[in-house]
Amino acid sequence: MPTSKDVAQAAGVAQSTVSYVLSGKRPISEKTRKKVEAAIEQLTYQPNAGARALAGRRTRVIGLVIPFIPELEMASLMEFVSVIASTARQFDHDILLVTEDEGAAGLRRVVGQQICDGLILMQVEDEDERLPVARTLNVPVLLIGIPRDPSGLVCIDADFEMAGEQCVRDLAAAGHNVISIIEWQPAVVNRHVNYVDRFMRGADGAAESLGVAVQHFPGGADVAIIADSVDKALAATDGVPAFIAPDRTIQDILRRALAARGLTPGKDVSIIGSASPTLAELQPVPLSTIDLRPREVSRRAVKIICDLLEADNQGPHESLELVPTVITHRSSTLRPPHGS
């Protein structure tokens, strides 16, 4: 691996001159600077992050701030992380995972120490304690999520309100007049993570406009809790039951609970869940799903923050983008009556 000494020899300059070109600490003639840059390119020399930061006041690192809630489905979360990381590389940036243990103080730390050029915040709560600090930082901050007050913030997310509405309208069109939602796990609901409230708002609003009933039941990874929710939902339902399960962690538990009661999805009951296309197709009865577009949200998030970094103005920035959601019909839902 070439060093700054190799660059100096190739350019015919002192090693300190290479350092000055990289750091910008001293004025260097245009001719000398170009010789050093040509040697860097020829040798494919990679200056360390500190040198690059000094040279352009940039680290080319974006902090990804994620609260690791034990009850969250990690595969779903890592789908965001992997796409964000790979997209960032396309823009010549790296990703630094920042856990939320430090709360708002952690944001000040990584920005104050010039560890990151910008921040992406995930699992945003309706009243998130990080937001007052985020609004004051002198680097771009992007939220994957929509807080109750998004003013002065750059936000992007799937349109969860649209998703809730789509699920209810789809099941109502299939003839269901009572629709049961098995909610996200209590640890997520109790944190008032923004997407939960938006999904429920869309579902409840659609039910009211269509004249159908939507009932809410607790979710979770506990088999007994899901079984109890299923029993209560069935007892309160006239006609063919229908379930919406937006939390990926409960799909298998819900399916097994229904099977234990002699109910087959797509025949005796309708289910709209959330799963990757591959996992949805692998279910004993392929699962109809609401696609919350995690990959598209992740790609757009990186594109937006990199555009802000390239613009190189300190803000304030404010925008809100909602990515439309899509229902994919498979075999777990009854289809609307012919001609309806």
Automatic annotation (TrEMBL):
GO terms for molecular function: DNA-binding transcription factor activity; transcription cis-regulatory region binding. Residues 2-56 form the HTH lacI-type domain. It comes from the Bacteria. The keyword Cell wall biogenesis/degradation does not apply. It holds the Pfam family LacI. The keyword Transcription applies. Keywords: DNA-binding, Transcription, Transcription regulation. InterPro entries: HTH_LacI, LacI/GalR-like_sensor, Lambda_DNA-bd_dom_sf, Peripla_BP_I. PANTHER family: LACI-RELATED TRANSCRIPTIONAL REPRESSOR (PTHR30146), LACTOSE OPERON REPRESSOR (PTHR30146:SF153). This is Maltose operon transcriptional repressor, LacI family.
